[in-house]
């Protein structure tokens, strides 16, 4: 009996030591890992490749996520899912943070908290080279394609136009290439990649119609512990030029593919 008690005490002490070392049971970031969610359909920010910076995932966001974790002495894990599911997965606690070229919008701010923004983007129109679309209002009588849940969809909705929504950017662009739609509204950097990948397409900008957007990392509302970690890393990477370098590097890389 005495022996058993001693054994139990020792075991408990060991478990407690292990817990302290790995910070288990502490807060949203389980153990020493930050589990990010993304939708790896958005080059140059996130895409699947044979050897990525986090598992099979590579891109500007993936490199940023890795550095955020490392600069806090942690490891980054990545879960790939549909863009639409990301904020739900965050609310459920399935992931700790979302890094997905996600625009910090007021609507999203109602349910999650955003980090310091790390990239400025804008919506653009991808059209065929012979298109007569030169400004956003030219879309009025055209067949418009957007990607479900992206800010491009919200923009077109707000303009009051009808459209068709696709799950992936590549699917919408295929419709455009095949002449089944006339214009795809999507974020600028990703649009450049699609235009580079497909013959006969061009980008039309209309800064008067599309406001600039800021990409930021989302965490659960009130998770200041993780947000502080993320912000201190982002602010450092912005100040020392790391994010700028990553943006240039990955943009060149995906355009060369
Ligand atoms: N910036 C746009 C938004 O926030 C599109 C983001 C798409 N990102 C992605 N990883 N698929 O809605």
Written account of the structure:
The protein is 40% helix and 22% strand. The protein is globular and about 55 Å long. The chain is built from nine helices and 14 strands. Strand 2 and strand 3 (46-48) form a beta hairpin. Helix 2 crosses helix 8 (224-239). The protein has 257 residues and is of the alpha/beta class. Strands 8, 9, 10, 11, 12 and 13 form a six-stranded mixed sheet that branches. Bound molecules: arginine. Arginine (ARG) binds at residues 38-39, 41-42, 46, 83, 100-103, 150-151, 187. Residues 38-39, 41-42, 46, 83, 100-103, 150-151, 187 line the site of arginine.
Topology:
Elements lengths: L1 H21 L10 E6 L2 E2 L3 E3 L8 E2 L1 H12 L3 E6 L5 H7 L4 E2 L7 H4 L2 E3 L4 E10 L15 E4 L3 H8 L5 E3 L2 H9 L5 E5 H10 L3 E4 L7 E4 L2 E3 L3 H16 L2 H15 L1
Parallel strand pairs: 1-5, 1-6, 9-10, 9-11
Antiparallel strand pairs: 2-3, 3-4, 6-14, 7-14, 8-11, 8-12, 8-13
Helix pairs in contact: 2-8
Bound molecules: arginine.
Short description:
The protein has 257 residues and is α/β, with parallel strands linked by helices. Helix content is 40%, strand content 22%. Helix 2 packs across helix 8 (224-239).
Tally of separate helices:
9
Number of strands: 14
- Terminal CA distance reads 69 Å
Q: For the report, how would you describe the main beta sheet?
A: 6 strands, mixed
Percentage of residues assigned to helices: 25-40%
The coarse silhouette is: globular
Structural class by SSE content: alpha/beta
Runs in which pLDDT lies below 50 for 5 or more consecutive residues are 10-29
Ligands, ions, cofactors: arginine
Work out the radius of gyration. Answer: 22 Å
């Amino acid at each position: 009996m005495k022996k058993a008690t001693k054994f139990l005490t020792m075991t408990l002490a060991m478990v407690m030591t292990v817990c302290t070392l790995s910070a288990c049971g502490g807060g949203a970031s389980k153990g020493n890992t930050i589990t990010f969610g993304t939708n790896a359909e958005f080059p140059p920010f996130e895409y699947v490749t044979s050897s990525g910076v986090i598992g099979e995932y590579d891109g500007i966001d993936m490199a940023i996520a890795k550095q955020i974790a490392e600069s806090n002495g942690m490891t980054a894990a990545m879960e790939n899912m549909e863009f639409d599911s990301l904020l739900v997965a965050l609310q459920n606690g399935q992931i700790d943070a979302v890094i997905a070229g996600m625009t910090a919008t007021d609507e999203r701010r109602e349910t999650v908290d955003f980090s310091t923004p790390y990239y400025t983007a804008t919506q653009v129109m991808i059209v065929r080279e012979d298109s007569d679309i030169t400004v956003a209002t030219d879309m009025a009588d055209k067949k418009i394609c957007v990607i479900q849940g992206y800010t491009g969809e919200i923009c077109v909705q707000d303009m009051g136009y009808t459209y068709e929504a696709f799950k992936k950017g590549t699917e919408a662009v295929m419709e455009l290439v095949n002449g089944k739609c006339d214009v795809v509204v999507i974020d600028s950097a990703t649009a450049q990649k699609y235009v580079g990948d497909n013959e006969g397409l061009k980008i039309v900008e209309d800064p008067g119609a599309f406001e600039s957007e800021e990409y930021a990392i989302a965490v659960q509302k009130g998770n200041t512990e993780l947000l502080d970690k993320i912000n201190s890393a982002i602010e450092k990477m912005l100040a020392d030029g790391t994010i700028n370098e990553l943006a240039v590097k990955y943009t060149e890389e995906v355009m060369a593919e």
